[in-house]
Design a protein that fits this description.
Structural class of chain B: mainly alpha
Distance between the termini of chain A: 64 Å
Order of helices and strands of chain A: HHHHHHHHHEEHHHHHHHHHHHHH
Oligomer: heterodimer
Number of strands of chain A: 2
Strand order of the largest sheet of chain A: 1-2
Helix content of chain A: over 70%
Shape of chain B: flat
Largest interface: A-B, 58 and 65 residues
Number of helices of chain A: 22
Radius of gyration of chain B: 24 Å
Low-confidence stretches of chain B: none
Structural class of chain A: mainly alpha
Largest sheet of chain B: none
Largest sheet of chain A: 2 strands, antiparallel
Shape of chain A: globular
Number of strands of chain B: 0
Mean pLDDT of chain B: 89
Strand content of chain A: under 5%
Chain lengths: 496, 147
């Protein structure tokens, strides 16, 4: 292994490959930061350019784009409350409040450093555990996926702000919206009163509307107090402050990296689920959980650390078994096939230069991503100097562009507009939008795997409890849901 | 509007929403095999939960009314907000008919004015700048064709 890794480093450190890492990083930032464009779209757009390239250079370009795009989504999440990628939704929970307080620099710095640390630790885990972890992921069947989704949804009780009843209503509304479209098991249309609805309600445009467009309406409400009504002043956040903040959140960084890697390995789970679960775990373990959602850098670190750690994680089953861990990894299979390489168990023996070059390029691209990202912070932070009313118009324009680019159709734009109005009204009356996001991410996975598990077990509900991983996750889900409620009831009784 | 009234209005809307999904969910066909629960179970269960929790919200709201707790929901600059929302709807409606660039050239200035900006220099600068950004970023660099 060491020999192959050293040989890979000498290949990757060649000028052509370094150039590909730089190009992939810059393009990845750009694509990731634009709401409506996901890393998978970026990879798909760049594949045609790799046809004539050497296979190592081509894969290094695409993998660098993948990593940088996951970070890029956090930029607009923090500055505009408009997550560039679904996995950056949890970053916005604490990132945007920090921007409003005039600490956008702090938020962006914590985000890029957490992303780099998450990706780095996850890459180390990938190098040493790719094959055994990929085999572990094969144990995940429908019962385990259902249990994972249920565990994710149980986060509602700790993620919800204010009234639990309103949070639950929002969760159920999100879950029922996900049932619109074709039934995943029988192929029957459900609640699809127009042809567009047969494809269901697309997640990313809805997310853009719920977060970004609803924030646009809030920005329009603020009265002009002075000639330049800015979003906030820029507070300086230097190296000393960065070091201090990072040492305060070091356990969160470690935990989010491991969580992100493990969840990233599970095919279909992905960076979005990883970032939400990591955020929740950080909140639960925190000494000050009430500060989450109000600008706690730990929340940003948990989300960004995990979503970037999920990238190397998703490469483990791809390289070891030929099974993609995420949509972006699935498109990478296409890139590998074009290069004449078949991913799977024989890849490490027949073409060891491919996986080891990917490992080496990840280790080299992460510091490059960090340097480019930190330099970019000084640029991005100036967005906060734009007067709020003008920023509102620009963000509204980006929402429309991004939603249209998602599927090249006006249907996504209308979903975004409806999401924006609903999100704004919900926020006005104190109904949180986070549960809707949770529901839309996990609802489909929960229903389809529940029904698949029943079919596999011939209708036996005990099947879920007979599978150890599923049993543990279901038990954790019940504890996660019930314990905060019991704590709240106890504290109300003590106050009386 | 008072918070209590807003909660009651929202709860009634959610109940109607839940009833719509319940009626349409019940009308869905059953499972195709004995093991599966069928396409109707999840939506029906969720719609019942929405109705139940909306009723709980109504009860909680009346309890809070009796306790005397109160709050108000306000929308500052409501005319600007409503105008802006209406313009966005019109923008989206006309976009596929007259094309992205023409509709943006028409509606961006209107949106900027609706946001409260009065400087024509800023209106022109931001409109032209955004159209250039959309063209370079999406049409040229990313090859995402705009209408």
């Amino acid at each position: 292994m060491v020999e192959h890794l050293l040989s890979a480093f000498s290949t990757v450190l060649g000028s052509e490959v370094i150039l590909m890492i730089l190009l992939g990083t810059v393009v990845g930032y750009f694509i990731g930061s634009l709401p409506g464009l996901t890393p998978s779209i970026g990879i798909a757009l760049l594949i045609p350019f790799t046809f004539g390239m050497d296979s190592v250079a081509a894969l290094v370009l695409l993998v660098s784009l993948y990593v940088a795009a996951e970070y890029g989504g956090g930029i607009t999440a923090i500055l505009l409350n408009a997550p560039g990628t679904p996995a950056a939704a949890a970053t916005a929970f604490d990132g945007y409040p920090l921007t409003v307080k005039g600490q956008a620099g702090k938020a962006l710095t914590v985000s890029i450093v957490a992303s780099a640390i998450g990706a780095f630790l996850s890459t180390i885990l990938l190098i040493f555990t790719a094959v055994p972890m990929a085999n572990f992921a094969l144990n995940f069947g429908p019962a385990e996926y259902f249990a994972l989704a249920l565990f994710g949804l149980s986060l509602i009780s700790s993620l919800s702000e204010g009234s639990l009843v309103k949070s639950l209503i929002a969760l159920f509304i999100g879950l029922i919206i996900i049932t619109i479209g074709m039934d995943p098991v029988n192929g029957i249309p459900r609640f699809a009163f127009t042809n567009n609805l047969l494809g269901g309600v697309p997640f990313l445009p809805a997310l853009i509307g719920l977060f970004a467009l609803s924030e646009v309406f809030y920005m329009l409400e603020s009265k002009k107090k002075s000639k330049y009504d800015k979003v906030g002043k820029i507070e300086k956040f230097g190296f000393k402050a960065t070091k201090q903040t990072l040492s305060e959140i070091k356990f969160t960084l470690l935990r989010s990296s491991i969580l992100g890697y493990v969840i990233g390995i599970i095919p279909g789970a992905g960076a979005t689920i990883a970032s939400l679960i990591s955020y929740n775990e950080a909140k639960r373990a925190s000494k000050d959980p009430d500060s989450f959602g109000k600008g706690n850098p730990e929340g940003i670190a948990a989300s960004e650390g995990a979503n970037n750690a999920a990238v190397p994680g998703s490469l483990a089953p791809l390289l070891a078994l030929g099974i993609p861990g995420s949509a972006s990894a699935a498109i990478l299979i296409g890139a590998l096939t074009i290069q004449g390489v078949q991913p799977g168990p024989l890849l490490f023996t027949d073409h060891p230069e491919i996986p080891y070059s990917i490992f080496a390029s990840l280790l080299i691209s992460i510091p490059i991503m960090l340097v480019v990202g930190l330099w970019g912070v000084k640029l991005w932070v100036n967005v906060t100097l734009i007067p709020k009313n003008l920023l509102a118009v620009i963000v509204a324009g980006i929402c429309i562009l991004g939603s249209y680019a998602y599927s090249n159709s006006m249907y996504s734009v209308w979903i975004m507009l409806i999401g924006g109005v609903v999100g704004y009204l919900f926020r006005k009356i104190g109904i949180p939008t986070t549960p809707i996001v949770l529901a839309m991410v996990l609802g489909f996975m929960m229903e389809v795997n529940f029904r698949r598990a029943l079919i596999v077990s011939d209708g036996s509900y005990l099947f879920f409890l007979s599978r150890p991983i599923a049993f543990i996750l279901i038990a954790l889900a019940i504890m996660t849901l019930v314990l905060p409620i019991i704590r709240t009831i106890k504290s109300k009784k003590n106050n009386i | 509007m008072s918070t209590h009234l807003a909660n009651l209005v929202a709860a009634f809307i959610f109940i109607i929403f839940g009833i719509w999904f319940l009626i349409n969910g019940i009308a869905l066909p059953g499972a195709m095999n004995n093991a599966d629960i069928g396409p109707a179970v999840f939506p029906v269960l969720l719609s019942v939960l929405i109705i139940i929790f909306s009723i709980v919200l109504i009860v909680q709201t009346f309890k809070n009314l009796k306790n005397g707790s109160n709050g108000r929901i306000t929308i500052n600059r409501i005319f600007n907000v409503v105008c802006f929302a209406g313009l966005m709807v019109l923008y989206a409606a006309l976009l596929p008919r007259i094309g992205y660039y023409i509709s943006t050239a028409i509606f961006f200035p209107l949106l900027i004015l609706a946001s409260g900006e009065k400087s024509w220099k800023k209106v022109v600068f931001i409109t032209v700048g955004f159209i250039a950004f959309a063209s370079v970023a999406f049409d040229i660099l990313l090859g995402v064709p705009l209408p």
